[in-house]
């Protein structure tokens, strides 16, 4: 784990973690010990706590907890007002359209997205392509169902757009490395 | 209305400056967390509060202060919200309490359904089930996306006895949407109370920028480490070149203390006039 004070926002400590990103299908069967519920390790602001991968658009990007200009230069950022990956509700992640999420608009319904964390692997499937104004909070609000919302600015040749584009994804599977109390292996 | 508003703010400010151990109680960290969650405080801040409290550096008096401060924050925002819709806050609280008592009494006297055989009455009963909130009112999501005028128009259109029920059962996000659309003076008062309350939980809030659409704040713990950044406004985080024009340059955060309410109010008004 690397820790470095930010040169921008005063007091921002950026932590980078080594996170295992071996797909479940490539893990030997005898080593596949996962649980449906487990302990979530809550990240601190500025900590890279996940890796987001999507084969459909050849995407692999670190995910930081919290959002700031410095963090957006390093990877995708998760809104600290949304739920931590693995918790019940809506996890909201955004990234720069000029860099990490340049191909986000190429995602199609049914594409798979995987989030790797230090405490488990979470698989999602794109359910809807979305577009909304920067003042419309409909897609970033808490939800009852478990979902992942990815968005970025709409690409424009000049200046920036008031539009946001992205996808919402349904949770397909949760695989925790360590069980919650009393939980059996899945 | 304005006189009442300023008198209220003066009393809150006095409480902030004079120390806030208004009631001698023995609240726990769990009590404070539960109160903060009920007020819609983000889990990030609550967890940070827990970490600070768990470090053993907090006295009982500080925990009590935190609890009272969060309670006052709840009451203050609630008062502003009710007043925005022409509802007397005290009457509203009484009505909510009465409704809760009635609901509790009804649930206690409900017959045990597991031992009753299905009967032809069941279908008839199903038709007379009380309306749910979704049946009676628009969704929170629709309400959130309305302008303040549209919100007020909608609430005015409700029967008198349903106005309070609608407002009191709004989700925290819907209530936040009202707060963001409040007049400048009230927004500044709530912001100040938020800052003071965070401070009782061991956090320092700085206002990084103020624009027409939002206020950007950074929250740091007592060691100066950033624990959260929040946009208190209506614009969703941008991902690209910033096109807002912050009236205060980022990095020159303004630390607004308990004595800073007047300053913050003046600053917001002054910069709105300049823009």
Strand-and-helix sequence of chain A, N→C? EEEEHEEEEEE
Unreliable stretches covering 5 or more consecutive residues of chain A? none
Biggest chain pair interface: A-B, 39 and 31 residues
Computed CA radius of gyration of chain B, to the nearest angstrom: 22 Å
Tell me about this structure:
The complex is a heterodimer of chains A (186) and B (275). Chain A has a single domain, classed as Sortase, Chain: A. Chain A is built from one helix and ten strands, in the order E-E-E-E-H-E-E-E-E-E-E. Chain A has one helix at residues 69-74, and strands spanning 2-5, 13-16, 48-54, 59-65, 76-78, 90-94, 112-117, 120-133, 147-153, 163-176. The longest helix of chain A is centred in the middle third of the chain and has 6 residues, at 69-74. Chain A starts with a strand and ends in a 10-residue tail after the last strand. Chain B has 13 helices and four strands. In chain B, strands 3-2-1-4 form a four-stranded antiparallel β-sheet, covered by helices on one side. Chain B has helices at residues 2-17, 29-38, 43-54, 60-84, 89-109, 120-127, 133-136, 140-144, 148-157, 160-168, 172-180, 184-200, 261-274; strands at residues 203-210, 214-221, 226-233, 254-255. Chain B has a domain at 2-80 and 182-274. The interface between A and B is medium-sized, with 39 and 31 residues.
């Amino acid at each position: 784990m690397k820790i470095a004070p930010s040169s921008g926002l005063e007091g921002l400590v950026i932590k980078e973690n080594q996170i295992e990103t071996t797909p479940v299908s490539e893990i030997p069967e005898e080593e596949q010990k996962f649980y449906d519920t487990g302990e979530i390790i809550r990240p601190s602001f500025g900590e890279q706590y996940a890796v987001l991968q999507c084969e459909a658009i050849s995407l692999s990007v670190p995910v930081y907890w919290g959002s700031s200009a410095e963090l957006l230069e390093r990877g995708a950022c998760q809104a600290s007002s949304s739920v931590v990956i693995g918790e019940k509700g809506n996890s909201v992640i955004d990234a720069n359209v000029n860099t990490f999420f340049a191909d986000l608009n190429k995602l199609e319904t049914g594409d798979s997205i995987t989030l790797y964390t230090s405490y488990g692997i979470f698989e999602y499937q794109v359910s809807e392509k979305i577009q909304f104004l920067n003042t419309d909070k409909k897609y970033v609000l808490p939800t009852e169902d478990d979902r992942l919302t990815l968005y970025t600015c709409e690409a424009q040749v000049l200046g920036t757009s008031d539009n946001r584009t992205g996808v919402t994804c349904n949770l397909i599977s949760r695989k925790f490395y360590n069980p919650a109390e009393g939980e059996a292996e899945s | 209305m304005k006189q009442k508003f300023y008198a209220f703010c003066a009393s809150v400010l006095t409480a902030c400056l004079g120390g806030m151990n208004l009631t001698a109680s023995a609240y726990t960290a769990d009590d404070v967390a539960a109160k903060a969650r009920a007020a819609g405080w983000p889990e990030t801040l609550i967890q940070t509060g827990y970490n600070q409290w768990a470090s053993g550096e907090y006295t009982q008096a500080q925990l009590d202060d935190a609890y009272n401060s969060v309670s006052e924050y709840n009451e203050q925002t609630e008062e502003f919200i009710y007043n925005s819709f022409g509802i007397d806050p005290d009457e509203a609280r009484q009505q909510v309490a009465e409704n809760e008592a009635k609901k509790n009494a009804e649930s206690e006297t409900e017959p045990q359904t597991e031992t009753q055989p299905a009967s032809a009455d069941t279908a008839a009963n199903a038709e007379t089930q009380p309306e749910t909130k979704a049946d009676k009112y628009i969704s929170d999501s629709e309400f959130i996306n309305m302008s303040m005028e549209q919100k007020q128009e909608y609430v005015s259109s409700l029967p008198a006895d349903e106005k309070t029920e609608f407002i009191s059962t709004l989700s925290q996000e819907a209530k936040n949407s009202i707060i963001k659309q409040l007049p400048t003076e009230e927004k500044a008062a709530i912001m100040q109370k938020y800052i003071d309350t965070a401070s009782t939980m061991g956090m320092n809030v700085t206002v990084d920028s103020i624009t027409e659409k939002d206020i950007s704040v950074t929250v740091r713990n007592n060691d100066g480490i950033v624990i959260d950044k929040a946009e208190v406004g209506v614009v969703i985080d941008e991902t690209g070149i910033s096109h807002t024009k912050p009236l205060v340059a980022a990095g020159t955060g303004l630390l607004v203390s308990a004595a800073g309410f007047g300053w913050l109010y003046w600053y917001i008004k002054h910069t709105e006039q300049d823009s």
